Amino acid sequence: MKFSDFNFECTLQEGLDSMGFETPTPIQEQAIPIIQLNKDLIGCAQTGTGKTAAFLLPILNNLALKPTDSTNTLIIVPTRELALQIDQALQGFSYFTSVSSIAIYGGSDGSVFEKEKRALSEGANVIIATPGRLMAHLNMGYVKLDKLEHLILDEADRMLDMGFVDDILKISSYLPKVRQTLMFSATMPNKIRVLANTLLVNPEHISIAISKPADGVIQGAYLVYDTQKNNLIKSVLEGKEISSVIIFVSTKIKVKELERDMQKSGLKAKAIHSDLEQPEREEVLRNFRSKKIQILVATDILSRGIDIEDIGLVINYDVPGDAEDYIHRIGRTARAAAAGVALTFINEYDQQKFFQIETLLGTEVKKIPLPSNFSPGPAYLPELKNKRPFVKKKNNFMKDRKPARKQYKA
Question: Which bin fits 130, alpha (ψ -120 to 50), beta or left (φ > 0)?
Answer without folding.
Answer: beta
